[in-house]
Specification:
The protein is α/β, with parallel strands linked by helices and 139 residues long. The chain is 59% helix and 11% strand. The two termini are 22 Å apart.
Length: 139
């Protein structure tokens, strides 16, 4: 199984005060147990680092970089993915949808990733289901 890891899941893992934290930790452990191939993008990491540094401090960023990132296959957004993401963003014309989300959707489609580890409803709206291991713990 493979899953794309979103900013929302990474922040939930890092922030003990986040409402999905306990669920995210259980889901992360379960995904590791079933040897799920975990993918994310450099855009997701950039977004996560910026938010984590602002909200939680550099210790959270250090934990992300040293404990989580080594377990992820990081896809670097190239010009084609960036362009497709921009197009999707403009076509969607939604204030609450980000360029990071749109590039994530493009990567998921191009790589054939089956699931998303995310607490962002936009992934479900795009048809990217959470893995059963993640869904079994309602938030």
């Amino acid at each position: 199984m493979s899953a794309f890891v979103d900013t929302s899941a990474l922040l939930a893992l890092l922030d003990a005060d986040e409402k999905h934290h306990a669920q995210a930790v259980r889901s992360w452990q379960r995904l590791a147990e079933v040897e799920t191939a975990l993918t994310t993008s450099n855009y997701v990491l950039l977004e996560t680092i910026a938010v984590a540094q602002r909200r939680l401090g550099i210790g959270a960023v250090r934990a992300l970089i040293t404990e989580v990132v080594p377990l992820l296959d990081v896809v670097y957004v190239d010009e084609a993915i960036h362009g497709a993401g921009l197009t999707a963003l403009i076509v969607a014309a939604r204030r609450d949808l980000s360029l990071v989300d749109c590039t994530s959707f493009e990567i998921i489609r191009r790589q054939g990733v089956g699931h998303a580890f995310a607490y962002d409803r936009h992934f479900a709206e795009q048809g990217f289901a959470l893995p059963e291991e993640v869904r079994q713990h309602p938030g």
